[in-house]
Design brief:
It is a single chain. The protein is mainly α. It is built from 13 helices and 4 strands. It has 2 domains: 9-155 and 249-301, no CATH class; 157-245, Arc Repressor Mutant, subunit A (Orthogonal Bundle), CATH 1.10.10. A two-stranded antiparallel sheet has the order 1-2. Strands 3-4 form a two-stranded antiparallel sheet. The two termini are 23 Å apart.
Length: 301
Amino acid sequence: MSATTIWPTTPLDAAEKAFVMLAEAPTHVPFDARNFAGLPRKILPLDELRKLLLTRGISETIRDAVWRELVIRSRRDGPAWRIAAIGMALPGLRRQAGMLAAGWHGDSHDLDSELLLGFMERLRTIDLDEPRICGRLIDAGVRAARTLRDKDSDTRLIRSESAGSLLPIRPWDHPDFVLARAIAIGVIDRDEARLIAETKLDHRTLARVAAEIGISPQTASDWRARAEKRLEKAINDGELAFVPLRSRRRSPNSIRRVAQRLGTQHGVEAALGTQQKALVGKTSDRQAAGVGAPGIAATPA
């Protein structure tokens, strides 16, 4: 890879460039679609696979099967496949980025960076036995970006036009933000917030989240129900109206943060350089990749 490669200045454009480079020679990393029902029985370039999955003739079952493989590879085979997963999801990520930027007066690069970071963080833990794998990954990115956007405005109380009067911080802006304020004043604890967020917002099963916390599904159900009652009462009583949260410290280089999360010290080009030999014809090791046990990071094959 040439040391003179010029990278775009925005996180999403940089991710697209990395994906395109990954799909082309000499770093060509193709997808072996021969064992996937409903796909052409051949080895596909990643950009061709992306276009194929966007067509209306492809069922959600096929999309989930492909995404299951992509997530497995991202956990098992290193940074190049994390770039591949991001690139495959970029059409949806770009749509969400446009919606997130509406009304935002800060740097949209920060939002885009959080969108990508939230997506990548969820790659490590997403339950592959549940449907809508790509959609849930994008949802996680959106939630991360919304949290940043809302924290930016939540660090100060909003003044109305009347001199000296203060409007409360709106606890209904975003669910993650409501939970964070509730934790801050002790209405609920972190485990209760996790049960609410992951089962109600991420649509994960209660049994699986309970197992990760280390409690029974019945106990989890009881905790969640009691926490939801306390949370509802706190909102109705206005307890969360004036609970400012500490602003997240901004990073001076959004693209660098994304590259670091990809797991490579030298950024995207180094990640691409690890894949000079195409990875094709391999059967996924579901157990090693953590299928059925989200969050287990496998060693590269």
